[in-house]
Amino acid sequence: MQKIEIHTKSRPSAVYCGEGAFLAAQQFLGENEVFVVTDENVWDIYGEDVEYLFPKAHVCILPAGEKHKNKSSLFRILDEMLAAGLHRSSYVVALGGGVVGDMAGLAAAMYMRGTHLIQIPTTLLAQVDSSVGGKTAIDYKNVKNVLGAFYQPERVYCDPKFLQTLPPREIRCGLGEIIKTGVLDGALGEKILQNADKLTDLDFLRSLVTDCVRFKARVVERDETESSGLRKCLNLGHTTGHALELRYGRRSHGEYVLIGMWLESYIAEGEGVATAEHSAWVRSLVSLAEKKIPAFPNVRECVSNALLDKKNDRAGVVSVVLSKAKGEFEEYALSSEKYAEYLSRLEEGRR
Ligand code: NAD
Ligand code: GLY
């Protein structure tokens, strides 16, 4: 098992990656009061393990899926925490994908102004991205992640055993954030391209989890609360991805990130931020996981969602994170009309 330390201003955090991480979490938690937050799908598969490892734990089982990442689930967690009589010294354990992790993290930040938080991510996306770095949130009034807090987990346990039960679609979804990291890191992007035939191989995915956590740890250490601008790089593909996700639903977060990176590579090229050759490199990475870009009817309607993106700081302007070159990014603002022109490329999709 590998340990990756993250030294942020608010709280040090450690991420453990590898076989046996779930058991290591149990050993760390010992006799502490534990409140597990999970979802129905994860509970169906891992409920018995939880009951065996944490026989005294309180368990809050939420309905699964992004559409439940809302205030009613958040308040259900908080109500059950109160009913269980948790204290500040209790441990909230988020066992699930990014939806569970984001909501349990926010509940841990709010309850008595902060309880202990442990993340045990069970999806590939949550292991490579959402469980690390302390962003927590719910969606509200059709705006993604608009209510949230930065709240670092004390420890994150990424156990590859959870990846074995993921449907192929959830692997592809995780590949969205892995490919994003590959574009940002450059060397990782090349590693992914050179091992394109191994992207469903669990041993290879395990090594990618560690690579992505290491990369994200270094970014979060330097810009925990996205104030210097560096952390914004992690939003590559996300302005468009979130705007589509809110308008169309159905697909998963990671799939929308892939489609967002595909579209935004054209913006980078069209606006002269990146060369055509580099943008084609980005698309070649995207195509490893998203072979066919689907068509989105009336896609220009998504401009209103993009205008509500948290990165925007001026009215009428859409801010996107563009990949300039391998390992280099630029935050770029363009008018909503110009953005709508680029978006229309998605009306017909691409085979
Ligand atoms: P998710 O949590 O909805 O999980 C996807 C599906 O997989 C769910 O149906 C879940 O029940 C199921 N599942 C989970 N673990 C499983 C397992 N081991 N075996 C079988 N099925 C399992 O989605 P996700 O893709 O993990 O996360 C997406 C969310 O993460 C979005 O809300 C996104 O905004 C958020 N996110 C947050 C950050 C952050 O920094 N906080 C970063 C990226 C994404
Ligand atoms: N996933 C974006 C971030 O953690 O900043």
Short description:
The protein is of the alpha/beta class and 351 residues long.
List descriptors.
two-stranded antiparallel sheet, binds glycine, 351 residues, Dehydroquinate synthase-like, alpha domain, binds nicotinamide-adenine-dinucleotide, alpha/beta, 2 domains, Rossmann fold
Describe the fold and architecture.
The protein is of the alpha/beta class and 351 residues long. The chain has two domains: 2-165, Rossmann fold (3-Layer(aba) Sandwich); 168-194 and 223-346, Dehydroquinate synthase-like - alpha domain (Dehydroquinate synthase-like, alpha domain, Up-down Bundle). Helix content is 45%, strand content 20%. It is built from 13 helices and eleven strands. The strands form three sheets. It has a seven-stranded mixed sheet with strand order 1-2-9-6-5-3-4, sandwiched between helices. The chain has a two-stranded antiparallel sheet with strand order 7-8. Strand 3 (34-39), helix 2 and strand 4 (58-62) form a beta-alpha-beta unit. It is globular. The protein starts with a strand and ends in an 8-residue tail after the last helix. Bound molecules: nicotinamide-adenine-dinucleotide and glycine (GLY). Glycine (GLY) is lined by residues 129, 133, 135, 231, 234-235. Glycine binds next to loops.
